[in-house]
Design brief:
This protein is an all-alpha fold and 69 residues long. Helix content is 72%, strand content 0%.
Length: 69
């Protein structure tokens, strides 16, 4: 399993906790919006920033399809 995918799994777990839901629901939403590849591809950015920054991006991606920055 790649480091990017491992990080994606952890990010889904932490984000789900932040949103008071389960990781499966987060994955379902990202899959429906065709955003999984984009989030996994953002590993280089997300793993060096604060987790809250990734949460802001996920919120923005889910709401608008665009990142917050």
């Amino acid at each position: 399993m790649s480091k990017e995918f491992k990080f994606f799994i952890c990010l889904m777990e932490y984000y789900a906790e932040y949103k008071n839901t389960d990781p499966g629901e987060v994955l379902r939403i990202l899959t429906e919006k065709d955003l999984v590849g984009l989030v996994i591809g953002s590993y280089e950015l997300y793993h060096i920033e604060r987790l809250e920054n990734a949460f802001m991006d996920l919120d923005s991606l889910i709401a608008t399809g665009k990142v917050a920055y």
